[in-house]
Design brief:
- This protein is mostly helical.
- The chain has one domain.
- The protein has 20 helices and no strands.
- Helix 1 runs parallel beside helix 8, helix 1 runs antiparallel to helix 12 and helix 10 packs antiparallel against helix 17.
- 47% of the residues are buried.
Length: 485
């Protein structure tokens, strides 16, 4: 776990930096500098682009991770990487042509509830391509075991760019139209910088030689589009579908609440960057002992870290909603539901990496399709009845069912579970601290209240985790940074 802990720690720092900047943007700058309608519009554009991204990438970012370590010679690696660079164009070009021919029909369909969406449909396509090729170039660097710069670009760069643009709007250097165009430009620039870095790590040598297992590679890429689309769909279908049922301003309220809950996903996002290539390597080498060890230790480490974040969010959420504009307070229940879903995600460790890099990914796709359908149906049933709370509940149910199926499937095929007795200990600690701190508020300013409660929760949680010795990796980090004997 040495390289995992080392790069994961650096990735966690940069990811939290990104989320910290994102928090300022989401909770304060967007809410005060941009109207609710345009905030909701931007959230819709980015969510729709994120849903399209796996399609635009043709699954290449996953395919590079899975197959790169199977090529042993420089020539075969170059031929493989050359294919990976051009493969996304197989879908990018036809989708663009279809969009050009059918623009009016697509625009009318997406703007039935909110007319403002109609003029911005092309922005979704451009952003999706930028996101897709960014992931391709990031995967290019990942297989060289270089994840830190890419993670910085993925989590920090665009948020700094958006922050600068928001201040440009505030000081009237940009109007809202120019701001939206500039936001899309930030994603395009991010992709280009990632390309330059990836090529500096390993310069492409274009080779068009015959590739071994080409049919397997193309089949995997084609099917993993579905897998990636399903995973993204479950995460972003809520904001996309809300546009069809409620006023787009409420999408802004929902986006703020989802952002708060999504902070819990930071450790998983950071550690996943290095877990993915390592998992693929162990699978390709058929190293079952190393794979099981990585599965359980990644699950426990992520659960401990995300458990602390979960506690800080849940215990302080009421005071946080006092600070931001009152109209956003309707998302309180959304925060609870999304937080639970994200905590369960972290508990799975490298489960996704095991499934998508194994020979069983085809079966998982079937489950994923069924769950995507479930998510859509649940949103259709619950949004009209409960609004944004219904959408959050639909997301929680879909993610809960999907994750449970994945855990069961890995158990059946690999005879591994991510849970140990230490998992139960951490769960009891989390429940105890929630019960102790949620209903306890200091009679201070909300910001002082949040800081003081967070400090007390952090001390209590880390002490219990250390005393119970639930994780050797975490205990070593606590001893290292607190200089305990």
């Amino acid at each position: 776990m040495g390289i995992v802990i080392n790069q994961s720690f650096k990735n966690t720092i940069t990811t939290y930096l990104g989320f910290g900047i994102g928090a300022i943007n989401t909770l304060f700058l967007y809410t005060y500098f941009i109207t609710d309608q345009y905030y909701g519009l931007i959230a819709f554009i980015l969510s729709a682009a994120n849903i399209m991204m796996p399609l635009m990438a043709f699954g290449v970012h996953n395919t590079i991770i899975k197959f790169y370590s199977t090529f042993k010679t420089r020539n075969s690696q170059n031929s493989f990487l050359t294919l990976m660079l051009f493969l996304p164009l197989v879908l990018v070009i036809p989708v663009g042509l279809i969009g050009y021919i059918s623009y009016e029909t697509i625009a009318e369909l997406l703007s039935q509830k909110n007319e403002i969406v109609k003029d911005y449909v092309w922005y979704i396509y451009i952003t999706a391509i930028a996101m897709a090729y960014f992931e391709v170039f990031f995967a290019w660097a990942k297989v060289q075991m270089q994840t830190v710069f890419g993670n910085f670009m993925k989590e920090v760069f665009h948020r700094i760019g958006v922050m600068i643009l928001l201040f440009c709007v505030y000081f009237k250097y940009l109007n809202v139209e120019q701001f939206i165009i500039s936001v899309i430009g930030v994603y395009v620039l991010r992709m280009l910088i990632m390309k330059l870095y990836a090529f500096s790590v390993r310069l492409p040598v274009f080779k068009f030689n015959k590739i071994e297992n080409l049919s397997s590679i193309l089949k995997y890429s084609s099917l993993i589009i579905i897998a990636g689309s399903i995973a993204t769909l479950i995460l972003d279908i809520d904001k996309f579908m809300l546009n069809n049922y409620i006023n787009i301003a409420e999408v802004a309220y929902y986006s703020v609440a989802v952002f708060i809950g999504t902070v819990i996903a930071v450790p998983q996002r950071a550690m996943h960057q290095i877990l993915q290539p390592l998992t693929a390597q162990f699978l390709n080498e058929n190293n079952k002992l190393a794979l099981k060890d990585l599965y359980q230790r990644s699950s426990l480490t992520l659960y401990v870290i995300s458990g602390l974040i979960f506690l800080l969010i849940i215990a302080n959420i009421n005071q946080l909603y006092v600070i931001i504009p009152e109209k956003f307070s309707g998302g309180l229940l959304v925060v609870f539901l999304i937080s639970i879903a994200k905590l369960y995600d972290n508990l799975l460790g490298n489960n996704n990496a095991i499934l998508f890099n194994s020979d069983y990914y085809r079966i998982v796709l079937i489950f994923g399709v069924l769950l995507a359908i479930l998510a859509i149906v649940l949103n259709m049933l619950l949004i009209p009845k409960y609004g944004i709370n219904g959408s959050a509940l639909a997301t929680l149910i879909a993610i809960g069912v999907y994750n449970t199926i994945k855990v069961y499937f890995v158990k059946q095929k690999f005879n591994m579970l991510p849970f140990t007795i230490a998992t139960l200990k951490v769960s009891l600690v989390i429940v105890a601290i929630v019960l102790l701190f949620y209903f306890w508020e200091f009679p201070f300013h909300p910001m002082a209240n949040i800081l003081l409660k967070s400090l007390l929760i952090g001390i209590a949680y880390l002490m219990l985790i250390y005393k119970l010795a639930v994780s050797q990796d975490i205990s070593e980090q606590i001893k290292k940074y607190l200089r305990l004997k």
